Amino acid sequence: VAQGETISTAENQQVEEPPSTRFTWTIENFSRLNVKKYYSDVFIVGGYK
């Protein structure tokens, strides 16, 4: 690297913070669920899927 040359690495790049969003939903009869995975329909919050 030549003197005065800047190397760009992931360590010195500023990263924009994602917007803080909270989405809450109720799972009915949660304690009675016996399958390890459940999937929901796709939904959009704040422009994200």
C-alpha end-to-end distance: 43 Å
What gyration radius follows from the Cα positions, in whole Å?
22 Å
The percentage helix is: under 10%
Low-pLDDT residue spans: none
Counting DSSP E segments of at least 2 residues, the number of strands comes to: 0
Q: Proportion of β residues?
A: under 5%
Mean pLDDT over the residues:
77
Describe the structure.
- It comes from Nymphaea colorata.
- Residues 20-49 form the MATH domain.
- This is MATH domain-containing protein.
- The chain has a domain at 18-49.
- The protein contains no helices and no strands.
- The chain is elongated and about 65 Å long.
- The two termini are 43 Å apart.
Could you outline the blueprint of secondary structure elements for this entry?
Elements: no helix or strand
Which key terms come to mind for this protein?
49 residues, little secondary structure, 0% helix, TRAF-like, MATH/TRAF_dom
